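Fold this: Bile acid:sodium symporter
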Amino acid sequence: MRSLRSLLDPFTMTLLAVVLLASLLPAQGQIATGFEWLTTAAIALLFFMHGAKLSRDEIVRGITHWRLHAIVFGCTFVFFPLLGVALKPVVAPLVGDGLYYGILYMCALPATVQSAIAFTSLARGNIPAAICSAAASSLIGIFITPLLVIWLLGAEGDQTAHTLDAIQKIIVQLLLPFIAGQIARRWIAGWMKRNSHWLKHVDRSSIVLVVYTAFSEAVNQGLWTQVPLKNLLALVAVCCVLLAIVLVAIWYAAKLMGFDLEDRITILFAGSKKSLATGVPMAQVLFSSASLGVMLLPIMIFHQIQLMVCAVLAQKFAERPQQHD
C-alpha cells in the first residue's frame, strides 16, 4: 500500500477529484463568469512566479553540453509532435478526433522542471545538465509550443483561435507576466525561496482553478456525452504506448550517440516528460472554452503515467553499484 501511494501523484489525484466535482457541480451563469476572470488572473500570476523562480544561472550552467540539450529539445519539440502526427491513422479512430487533438497538444508541450530534476537526482544522473535542460525547455516552450499548436491544429478551424488572436493572448497572459517575474526576481527571489513551502500551493491552486473552470464549461457543453468510456480507456492505453515508444527511442538514441550513463539518464528523464503545470494554463489561452476539457484530458492522464513509470525507472537506476557510474 505504501509503494502504491508513492506511485500515485497526490496533485494528479487532486485534479481528477476536481474533474469529478466539475462533472457533478459545474460552475454556471454569473459564477462561471467570475471563475473565468479569476482564472485569467491566476494564469498571469502563475507565469509571473515561473519567471521569478527561474534563475539565469540555471540556464548558463551546463550550457556548453550542447549535444545533450540538443537531443532533449529534439525529442521534446520535434520527435514527440512528429510521433503524434504519425500515429493519427491508428490513434484517432481509437480515441476520437477531440481526444486526438488533445494528444497532439500534449506532444507540443515543454518538459517538466521539478520532476525531471528530481528523477535525475534520484537516479544519480547529470543533475546540472538536467537543471539546464528542464529550465530551458520550460522557457523555450512559451514560444515554441503555441507555434507548434498552431501548426499541428491550425487546419482545424474550430480547435484553435485565430492565429493573431492566439499570439496576442500568449503575449499578454503568458509572456509579459513571465518577463515581469524575471525583472522582479532580483528583489523577490530570496523571499520566494524562503517561502517556497507555501508558495507551491499558490502554483497548484492556480492550476486547480483552471481545471475546474475548464471542465465546468466542458460539462455544460456536454463533455461526457461526447467522450465515451471506451475512448477514455483507449486514451490510457495510447498514453502508455506513446511513453514506451519515447523512452525506448530516447535511451537507444543517446546510447548510439555515445553519451555516458549519467548523461543518458538525464536525457531519458528530461526528454520524455510533458509539463502539466505549463500545459493547463497555456491551454486556457490557446483553445476555446467548448474544447478545453477534452484538450486537457490527455496531458492529465499522461502526467500520472509518466510519474509512475519514471519513479520505477529512477529507483532501478539508483540501485546500481556506485563503481558502475
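The chain has a mean pLDDT of 80. The domain at 2-315 is CATH 1.20.1530.20 (Na+/H+ antiporter like fold).
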